[in-house]
């Protein structure tokens, strides 16, 4: 219990350090929020008029749960950049030389990123309300939907931390972006997988992002694409299983990669 208490205290210290960086450089958060709002405006108003929602309904209500999840996915790049920068500047090595818990740096980074994600999600919710989106199933189910979105972010940030500690290359960020964008678009965020070829629709249906988006639409009471596939019929379950699997794999790998980190 003493070791756990000190591990949590060390992790909170690292979290406060990252929060102070945001206060000193708030433009990073501001630009991230503006980018998310720009995507909502672009797809909601420029392209939305040409897209039909399966079963009818307003496209912006169909779009917003997908935009919430997509923003959680894009946070993967921010996590990777922050961890890589600390590693390349020698900050991580200084932490490793100090008497602190081995998990403190990665746990602190995760806590800071989750706080950032809550702020980003809240801003995007306000944007959604402004363009006509809302939830229709009560505050309890809405809270569950937001919880699943943050659970996805929590799972993905461990993937970002692990990749940053293993690759430790700013140049690899471009390769990561090349992977993130197809993962985001090959889903049910913007259109129904039913409009895709069968083989592509199957990939989109089993995409972890699609599971969270489908579950969020169901919990918010927003128009959804439905579908006859097993993941489509069990979206809430898959929105729990996918993040749990990612955390089970990449959390211990992240801590292990940090402990073995060397210059």
Automatic annotation (TrEMBL):
<feature type="domain" description="ABC transmembrane type-2">
    <location>
        <begin position="27"/>
        <end position="261"/>
    </location>
</feature>
<dbReference type="GO" id="GO:0043190">
    <property type="term" value="C:ATP-binding cassette (ABC) transporter complex"/>
</dbReference>
<comment type="similarity">
    <text>Belongs to the ABC-2 integral membrane protein family.</text>
</comment>
<keyword id="KW-0812">Transmembrane</keyword>
<feature type="transmembrane region" description="Helical">
    <location>
        <begin position="62"/>
        <end position="83"/>
    </location>
</feature>
<dbReference type="InterPro" id="IPR051784">
    <property type="entry name" value="Nod_factor_ABC_transporter"/>
</dbReference>
<dbReference type="InterPro" id="IPR000412">
    <property type="entry name" value="ABC_2_transport"/>
</dbReference>
<feature type="transmembrane region" description="Helical">
    <location>
        <begin position="118"/>
        <end position="135"/>
    </location>
</feature>
<dbReference type="GO" id="GO:0140359">
    <property type="term" value="F:ABC-type transporter activity"/>
</dbReference>
<protein>
    <recommendedName>
        <fullName>Transport permease protein</fullName>
    </recommendedName>
</protein>
<feature type="transmembrane region" description="Helical">
    <location>
        <begin position="236"/>
        <end position="255"/>
    </location>
</feature>
<keyword id="KW-0472">Membrane</keyword>
<feature type="transmembrane region" description="Helical">
    <location>
        <begin position="29"/>
        <end position="50"/>
    </location>
</feature>
<keyword id="KW-0046">Antibiotic resistance</keyword>
<keyword id="KW-1133">Transmembrane helix</keyword>
<keyword id="KW-1003">Cell membrane</keyword>
<dbReference type="InterPro" id="IPR013525">
    <property type="entry name" value="ABC2_TM"/>
</dbReference>
<dbReference type="InterPro" id="IPR047817">
    <property type="entry name" value="ABC2_TM_bact-type"/>
</dbReference>
<feature type="transmembrane region" description="Helical">
    <location>
        <begin position="172"/>
        <end position="191"/>
    </location>
</feature>
<feature type="transmembrane region" description="Helical">
    <location>
        <begin position="142"/>
        <end position="166"/>
    </location>
</feature>
<dbReference type="Pfam" id="PF01061">
    <property type="entry name" value="ABC2_membrane"/>
</dbReference>
<dbReference type="GO" id="GO:0046677">
    <property type="term" value="P:response to antibiotic"/>
</dbReference>
<keyword id="KW-0813">Transport</keyword>
